[in-house]
Amino acid sequence: MYEKQDYEVIGHSRPRNDAPGQVTGTVQYVCDLHLPGMLYAKPVLSTEHHARILSIDASAALALPGVHCVATSADAPDYCYGVTDHDTPCLAVNKVRYKGEMVACVAAESYALACKAASLVKVEYERLPAVFDPRDALKPGAPVIHDECQGTSYEGNLLLAGPGKTLKLRVGDVDKGFAESDVILEREFCTNPQKPLPIEPFATLAAPDDEGGLTVWSTQQCVFGIAEHVASIVQLPMSKVRMVAPAVGGGFGEKNQVGTEPVTALLAKLTNRPVKLELTTEESLMFTGTKHPMYFTYKLGAKRDGTLVALKWDCVTGCGAYSSVAKLISGKVAFWGAGPYLIPNQWSDVKIACTNKQIGSAMRGFGMGQPTFALEVLMDMLAEELGMDPLELRKKNMFRDGEHMSTGQAIRASGIGLCLDKVAEASGWGK
Amino acid sequence: MKLTFFLNGREVTCDISPEMTLLTVLKELLHVNSVKRACLQGECGACTVIVDGDAMNSCLILAATVGGKHVETLESLGDSQHMHPLQKAFLDTGAFQCGFCTPGFIMSAKALLDKNPHPTEEEIRYGLSGNLCRCTGYVKPLEAVKAYVAAQSDIKVNEDAVQAVKAAAEQMGGAH
């Protein structure tokens, strides 16, 4: 076992390279970037949860001197972006699927002018029935949110994931496992859709260059994954799109997917000017994602001595109006729903439902937090039921090197026992 | 309309419209780097500057009201080669993570310390209460300001000692 004196970096405090710039204010974020001739953008966000767009009238906005452009989906190519499923338009097409979806975007000489122009854009909606709870979204008769991608990405509001449409895991025989159990607990858990809310709101600066290309500065953390979508929106080869990520003012998961880049790039193309789109915190709250809310049903069977025998659980998660990272998050949930425990008999099913809520986002743990919360609370309940020390219950069932996880992955160096011992010692457990 | 004010001790004049906020003038017209644009409604404190000695959210002040006044931003404190001890205290304490809220925190602390060089912990907490951080939290910035105050007090003690030594030397000199 190595101690910190054996290392030069681990366990030691080392100065950060960017630290002097942070305390002297020279570090540049997107909001600190300015280019000659730069226009300011202001979005028009949907005021409806689910509605057909009947008309968009931008004439009053365009009549203001200094307003260069009011982009709508009519100005964008027929292209939807997405991480696993291409279902997200850069500006709403025909209908809006959540309150806060971008319907139009103004580019003007100043931010104040852009705000004034955006307030003059008239959008006429025909309200449609909306659904907010992912469990309701999967019921027969629920309003269908994605009419276009039926059969490819969605079946009703179910986002199709994996060959079985939902994410399933089957190990051993759960019925037999429950029959052999001395204690069986059945509980339901749900987690709420938190906002990551970094202090720096989403922002993008896009500027055409002299060689027919486009440079995009973005607040997102993984800008290269966004390049192909920007290229498709402005109809340039990817080699002509340069993505730059300056300093990021916090992300917590939210800045892990496509944000305001495609629409800003579109405005830069339409105006042939550098364009900066900076959301306010309020707009960020409406436009950007939330942690995926999840609804779990857990059934856990154990022997009187605490040995876990069977686990059956299912989860319905709400991905919001568009798929984004929902399948990747849900894959993590499916993978980790049984926690770091060896349970011989398992049955699980994870369903992803589309709702008229903000797009689900990565947030602190990327799908790990929700099932961990549910299962660990259930483990505490089981310990209480068995009259057993919760720490002992976990140590009895935790991953052991040489064994296999429920997905078949070999466990070679889990370190969990060491970790639990350290936590118990540091927290004075049992004293 | 013309607006003339003092930015970090230097007189500046710019053309503004009546509805412009001080934040708009500092970011859009003067391109001041350290001031951050975020909530635009006085919630987060990332745009905090000092106006005639008071820490203020520049997003809530109409620019027209600062005519003739002194506005200080983080640029007035020091650069990476010549840091103000308060900046050094934030650096040494590690009182930031993403850094977006840091200029606002330091300016709030500066405004407090300019008026009250020896604040209590309660007073420091109150002084920083207008600034939101989402990464590090509030313990480290609090520690940074406390460390700065403690260091300044040490220096003051040392200065007293120096004065005492000087006075003694003079007396001894007089005795010669």
Percent range for β-strand residues of chain A: 25-35%
Q: What's the arrangement of strands in the largest beta sheet of chain B? A: 2-1-5-3-4
Number of domains of chain A: 2
Provide the gyration radius of chain B in Å: 19 Å
Name the CATH architecture of the largest domain in chain A: Alpha-Beta Complex
Distance between the termini of chain B: 69 Å
Determine and state the CATH class of the largest domain in chain A.
Alpha Beta
Q: Oligomer, anyone?
A: heterodimer
What does it look like?
The complex is a heterodimer of chains A (431) and B (176). Chain A has helices at 19-24, 59-62, 111-120, 134-137, 174-179, 224-234, 261-271, 281-287, 326-336, 369-386, 390-397, 416-427, and strands spanning 39-45, 51-57, 67-71, 80-81, 88-89, 95-96, 102-108, 122-127, 154-155, 158-159, 167-171, 183-191, 203-208, 214-218, 241-244, 275-278, 290-291, 294-302, 308-320, 345-354, 360-361. By secondary structure, chain A is an alpha+beta fold. Chain A has two domains: 31-128 and 196-287, Alpha-Beta Complex (Aldehyde Oxidoreductase, domain 3), CATH 3.90.1170.50; 154-195 and 290-427, Aldehyde Oxidoreductase, domain 4. The radius of gyration of chain A is 25 Å and the shape is globular. The mean pLDDT of chain A is 95. Chain B is an alpha+beta fold and 176 residues long. Helix content of chain B is 43%, strand content 13%. Chain B has a five-stranded mixed sheet, sandwiched between helices. Chains A and B meet through helix 1 of A and helix 1, helix 2 and helix 3 of B.
